[in-house]
Amino acid sequence: MRGRRRVRRMTGPSGVGIGWRPEIAGFVAELPGLRFVEVVAEGVPASGPLPPGLTQLRDRAVTVVPHGVRLSLGGAEPVDPARVAHLAAVAQRLDAPLVSEHIAFVRAGGLEAGHLLPLPRSREAVDAVCANVARAQAELPVPIALEPIAALLDWPDDELDEADFLTEILDRTGALLLLDVANVHANARNRGADPLALLDRLPLERVAYAHVAGGSERGGFYHDTHTDPVPAAVLELVGALCARRRPPALLLERDGHYPPAAELRAELDALASAAGFPAVT
Amino acid sequence: MTGTPEGGSAPAPRAGLAERQAELVAALVAGGEPPAGFAPGPLAATRAALLRKRAGEVARHWPLLAAGLGARWPTTFAEWAARRPTAGSLRDGWDLARALHDRHALPPAAAEELAVREARLRYDGVRAPRPRRVPAVGRAGGAVAVQIAGRVRLLRPAPRVPTRAGDGVPDAAGSELWISD
């Protein structure tokens, strides 16, 4: 079923995909049924040669979605125009049908946190995110999907619950939702909440694609590490999500401690079977 | 507009989002005071998770530094980085490698990695490293690397001294005089 058409802009994410990383480029290149990958946008140059593995995938008409991790859309300060311009340029180069970023902040007061931090679920934070998403949307050539993050801490000044917070941001920005099933699991586990109750209240018709990743328990918390196998509970949650409304695509994120190829293939197969998608391996 | 938290047990007047975000980041990565109202357990878990994530990213940029330290890598990095906000993985690893070198605690493979980087790029410890435009020599822990026209070769490996019960490898003596820039 490999399409031969070369459209200028690739089709939207579909089926089971995997986060493209240089360390597993060879593995990804050899997945026969793959139609969709995601790439960390900050790792792709805006000009000059693309990483060779990515060029190959584009030649196969595999959809490549740039996934930003450093925009800091949830920062109180306006988003950095140079970072938005980079994301826009990468989307253009890759003929991406959309880009994605997080509902989070990664820097403040001149300091880099080094990773995604949660926002207070307050009206003020909703305003800040919506203003930054609007700034980004004004420069991006394609739609943006927003991903709620996994957080170990909550702010003391939350005014909204998670579903209301996310729905309000999506409604006001018109953005798509990138739903990370492992994050839903992690947050529910760490807050003692019910993940299914959250799924029931999110606008699942707005999901552009979903993330799935592994994690581990440590010090009384579930950590969304992306360096461990996908736990059974997360796969079950994928099934529960698909039973409600199956997203167009599911993407496995792995960011280190790469397992042998056979194990990674088995994870992709397990994802496909949990969602009822064809295997890509 | 923004009030200053007074401390105490009553809900403090809330500062603006920018200020509160800055306070939280400083508490997480720069040894700042924990911001009012945050539960200490989740704050500590977040701090540790950020350090682990950062250690993984630095290890990708400095594979021999991480591999050379082996099982000691996570704690060595975390101790060094706990109160130092990141300057990016390249510079974080570079600063740590230089600090370990100064303490004679840089493993040989990591010394070679550092020497090669020192030959390739000019790094003043403050600004982003830049490619060297003229031939240069990089040295660390007895390792010597030379860069000519952008190509770097390791001329002399760092000496492997028999380790004493898993201790760090001491720096080799007499490594200073080999070649001058």
TrEMBL record, chain A:
Signal peptide: none annotated. Gene3D superfamilies: Divalent-metal-dependent TIM barrel enzymes. InterPro entries: MbnB/TglH/ChrH, Xyl_isomerase-like_sf. PANTHER family: UPF0276 PROTEIN HI_1600 (PTHR42194:SF1). NCBIfam families: PRK05409.1. This is UPF0276 protein.
TrEMBL record, chain B:
Residues 161-181 are annotated as: Disordered. It comes from the Bacteria. Residues 18-101 form the SCO6045-like C-terminal domain. InterPro entries: SCO6045-like_C. Pfam families: SCO6045_C. This is SCO6045-like C-terminal domain-containing protein.
